[in-house]
Design a protein that fits this description.
Layout lengths: L6 E7 L4 H16 L5 E7 L11 E2 H9 L2 H18 L10 E2 L3 H10 L6 H15 L7 H10 L4 H7 L6 H13 L7 E4 L3 E4 L4 H16 L2 H5 L1
Parallel strand pairs: 1-2
Antiparallel strand pairs: 1-5, 3-4, 5-6
Helix pairs in contact: 1-3, 1-9, 4-5, 5-6
């Protein structure tokens, strides 16, 4: 039996990116296919549109500015919708009333990273669900607090930190770091901090990457490459 080693995957993502939601689904299926490989997931911030105001922007206005209108956006999103069906995601784009600024959502995800094993991944999933399936404004503090409660975070801490600037600079710097590394689109899966799988690749591609990196790490070949 081939020896394997644990693999760490950093997912550079934005919670307003539909392909990131699909990417999460495919990664989870990939992990099931290589269940003998322990995988640690860390969610890293990225903003597709950091120019959005803190309160967000009316969705119809945003689509008109970005795509030229709802009909054009609906056409462009059709591929996303179809991909979602195959992954069990019921995209409900028509329910979305506000295009959010996601900086606070990324701050919450950062705090979730120290809230216990698997909590951050659960929070990412919940934020995707809230936005894409329920049409919630994930830039709204009340929505973020409810999401934190849903995944078992200490809500009192979240309630005290969200209104402040806590970790705002750290999140923006992390986004800048990703850009300096060459990340221009999301999702981007960074395996062991050095091997990138870009885009919502098929489950088989992700599973194969995890397997190969795990086996190479077990043989000490990653250190040799460095």
């Amino acid at each position: 039996m081939t020896e394997t080693s644990a693999v760490t995957i950093d997912i550079v993502s934005d919670v307003m990116c539909p392909w990131c939601y699909i990417g999460q689904k495919r990664l989870e299926r990939a992990m099931e296919q290589v269940a003998d490989v322990p995988v640690t997931i860390n969610w890293r911030p990225y903003q597709l549109d950091p120019t959005l105001p803190p309160e967000g922007k009316d969705r119809k206005t945003y689509l008109a500015e970005k795509f030229g209108g709802e009909e054009r956006a609906r056409s462009l999103y059709e591929n996303v919708r179809q991909a979602g069906v195959s992954e069990g995601v019921a995209f409900a784009f028509d329910k979305i009333a506000v295009s959010p600024n996601t900086l606070d959502a990324h701050r919450l995800l950062r705090w979730a990273g120290s809230s216990g094993d698997g909590v951050q991944n659960k929070l990412a999933r919940r934020l995707f669900q809230l936005y894409f399936e329920e049409g919630a404004n994930i830039g709204d503090h009340a929505v973020l607090i409810d999401a934190a409660r849903d995944v078992g975070m200490d809500v009192s801490i979240v309630e005290s930190l969200l209104p402040t600037d806590a970790d705002r600079d750290k999140v923006t710097e992390e986004i800048a770091t990703a850009q300096r590394m060459g990340v221009t689109g999301v999702p981007c899966f960074l395996l062991e901090g050095r091997y990138a799988v870009v885009g919502a690749q098929d489950t088989s591609v992700l599973a194969d990457a995890i397997r190969k990196i795990s086996e190479a790490k077990a043989k000490g070949e990653l250190d040799a490459d460095g």
